[in-house]
Design brief:
The structure is a homotetramer of 227-residue chains. With 227 residues, chain A is an all-alpha fold. The first copy, chain A, is built from eight helices and no strands. The longest helix of chain A is centred in the N-terminal third of the chain and has 30 residues. Chain A is globular and about 45 Å long.
């Protein structure tokens, strides 16, 4: 645990676990407590997710706070991390995400894992995931270029809370989180058969977002002293 | 895409597109998911809009983040941008706004464009648009004069989320967004016949806001190193 | 309008006008759009008020942003402003507050002024106003002593949004706003006969708050270069 | 009141009193005003709590702003405060918490103290308290290590607002607050018999959180000039 990479991987695992625990757990609570209005459930779910993202990014950014394989892949593509680091962080994100889903299920008295039966497919939703991930990459790398890098926490929290609402897919925008959400048959779940389509569109959106970042000129070379 | 003006125009296009996609998209989601309470729909719509404004301004401000022809016109009036720049940015804002409306419609499985049938007219609403835009100009140029220019993101996000509620018009306060909202027959739509009245009152409010800014002495000369 | 005091008074007038327009206007909108749940109305009203306070304080703090006679009186008591300034700013706050109430009524198609018939009295409510104002003075003067004075905007916005909920009186906590809220017979109104009791308890709470600030040692002498 | 420790204890007392007044008071208001949807009540309760935490931490952090015996115990464990200080601050937190509960009851016209009859037990809830407190310790000590220590206010406010939703226990995560919540038979109450289980799990979670902080390497020695 002494090495820098192990610390970063541990931060990604912890952060992604709390992120998924929030997405899944607040979805379960919302569904149970506000049974008559799906919009109110999504409001509760989206505000909890946005709020926890602010907290987690402020907390873990000094170590590592991507919590998202798409973000890590873009960092690899622009040369900010090497391949070993990228693979390690993505692995930690997936393990953390699964752990978060399991803990959320257990906290609410459910089986540790139940596969979701909530199918999410169709052109509109796939377009939604691509748009959502394009925007997320834009926000992450744009805000990191601002005067105070900590503002990325508020930018990402605000963006995701909004994206739950403005995309038809409710903006998963994160392959690790998507996989973990297949493991709970509750509000935030996604049927395993729908996962590949979502992940594919997230990768497409992420690539488009990286292109937009380059066009904006916000970052064209690795830059260790920011973020 | 190498020139500074092209980068700024691209940022205005992207930002205004995501802004309108949020206004329109979250309106559609709110209407579908919370069918029994119009106030709850507006709450969902206003929180999503305020949150995305925080994200988009933090993200794009290092390049250009007005997203609003009234703001750009005031910047031209006080000499902070030249006429070529102002025309280019306003053009990019309108194109981005239309794009955002189209994408929102498509994400939710609707036709790319449907003209709104939601008429919005009357003395109260027109007064609302003038007041809303006066306040917006005050907030943008006042907050930019503060110690940390990035706070304009929180000021504008907070202001617009509130203005959805305190004005009878729900505070469009933006000619580019108003035009684009004519292209969707959903919660956020405005009938084309109602657009000129709204835009006129936005220009009146913007002029009054610029006057208030000058009286406050917050900015009496171009100042390139802020914002 | 060239003098420093005139600029400050204008800022107080504008800020208090927008604050009251938000309190009253969002109350009217909430009552009309969410007719079935008073709590949802208060949620909409409190979030709009908290959000606009963040915006207005960030915007006007470089000039003057108290918007509240109790705060100005405490500043006089600790020697941060002289008597002429205090009287001028309080006058501007009251004029601005009345203007805000009138504009809100007009935006929503009501008479410019209608006296409220909403009686608000009783031990619990009076205790609520004293506690609310004690807390507000603590927050304003405590947060101004922090590293970055702009954080007072977030502190006050957060505090007031919460105080709408944790006090039985919904936390008016401001004599100028209280007077102006007597002029609208809507959600946010207060019957003129209930105004003196509220204002008295606000003054009591303000004095207690000033005492707490002194005990905390946060500020024992005038200090021109903060705030 | 001149000594540094007395000032810190007074800040902890005031802050914890306002925190508990908000938790209890907003719970009572929510229950009365939104009687038909428990989720809406929790939304109102959680947003008020998160918002007041931002305000209170920004306000009192220059003096002392833990408001939580678990946080103070971790600070003792890592050597940032001595035993006399820790005991004094925890005493002040408990007294303040009880005071806040009493004031909330009185503001809403209830008896000063009524023991709660709301039993909260079971594996899921206990796991919830451990997870909630683990996360809180991580957030507090992680965010304090960031560039600007004031961001801990936004991190904690966001975290707790979310944790009300993602844990099955609604995240008490604070022994002083838990004790005080036994003294009100309202929305936020907890039966005295359920208090020991909650406090035990909070201590377990706090210890795990301290371990995670050490593994992350965020803070391995006392450091007087931060926080």
């Amino acid at each position: 645990m002494r090495s820098e990479l192990a610390r970063k991987a541990f931060a990604e695992l912890l952060g992604t676990a709390f992120l998924v625990a929030t997405v899944v757990g607040s979805g379960i609570a919302a569904q149970r407590l506000s049974p008559r209005d799906t919009g109110l459930q999504l409001l509760e779910n989206s505000l909890a997710t946005g709020a926890v993202l602010v907290a987690l990014i402020l907390t873990l950014r000094p170590v590592s706070a991507s919590f998202n394989p798409v973000v890590t892949l873009v960092e690899r593509a622009i040369g900010r991390v090497d391949s070993t680091t990228a693979v390690s962080l993505i692995g930690a994100q997936v393990v953390g995400a699964v752990l978060g889903s399991v803990v959320a299920n257990l906290m609410f008295g459910l089986h540790a894992v139940t596969l979701s039966t909530h199918h999410r497919t169709g052109d509109g939703l796939w377009l939604g995931e691509a748009v959502a991930t394009l925007g997320l990459v834009l926000v992450v790398f744009g805000a990191l270029a601002a005067d105070h890098a900590e503002t990325v926490a508020y930018a990402v929290g605000g963006y995701i809370a909004a994206a739950y609402w403005f995309t038809s897919s409710t903006s998963f925008a994160n392959p690790a989180v998507t996989i973990a959400r297949a493991l709970t048959d509750t509000f935030a779940g996604i049927a395993p058969a729908s996962v590949p389509g979502f992940v594919l569109m997230q990768l497409v959106g992420g690539a488009l977002g990286a292109g937009a970042v380059l066009l904006l000129g916000a970052r064209t070379a690795p830059d260790g002293d920011r973020a």
